[in-house]
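Structure Section — protein described below
Tokens — whole-number codes for backbone shape
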Amino acid sequence: MIFLPLIIFIFGLIIGSFLNVVILRINTGRSIAKGRSKCARCSTTLSWYELIPVFSFLTLRGKCKTCKNPISFQYPLVELTTALVFTILYTKILLSNGFNFFGIVSFLGASTISALLIVIFAYDIKHKIIPDKIVYPFIIISLASVFWRNVFGDNDMLIKDLFAGPALAAPFFFLWFFSKGRAMGFGDVKLSLGIGWLLGLAGSLATFFLSFWLGAIVGLLLMASSKTSLKSEIAFAPFLIIAVFIVGVFSVTLQSLFPIW
């Protein structure tokens, strides 16, 4: 059992490598499951030893072996993030619930949701859009998690948890509707619907406030560094997703954010 966290970490690196393929190929017409990986600059087909998660990036010193152009830091960052998240979920879910049916299914479900959110995070930063092919599965799995928690877990708040999805999506919908898409994209509305179902009503409220805090802080820092302005478009999904992990993994509550609440 002592080697299990290491196995989970390595498994996360491998899944992270696959997520990079998804981020790169989704909505391009290329098959995600088929086709050899190629250098984004020179289109040279990559050898197996150039595709080892993180290790290849380090040994190649962040450059393509053929054309010597820099390899995006996205690749090792996504791989390491996925590995770390999977390892944290292992300690928070499997070690807490034990290696029983509920614990294993909960871990697999949380890992799948995390993988989808990591793709959305990276894709939104890169393209300023949330792909439907990723957000819809996230919504469906999040809705399923409501029934999982209330039927097989220790939750007994089915109606409140079902209400949480539309409740969190509503303010984002109004921001999108009244700003005609300038202040908020409709992808954020769909993402928030799934987040509401994933975290329940209390978690949704904490996520809502924390995401706007994070967005405001990062926005001010970017303006202070003259890298953006009030008119610049900033992807909001990453702030929502960071807030989801903080609230969901570390059990941050609205009361801890607002002690006088």
Q: What stands out?
A: The two ends are 42 Å apart (CA to CA).
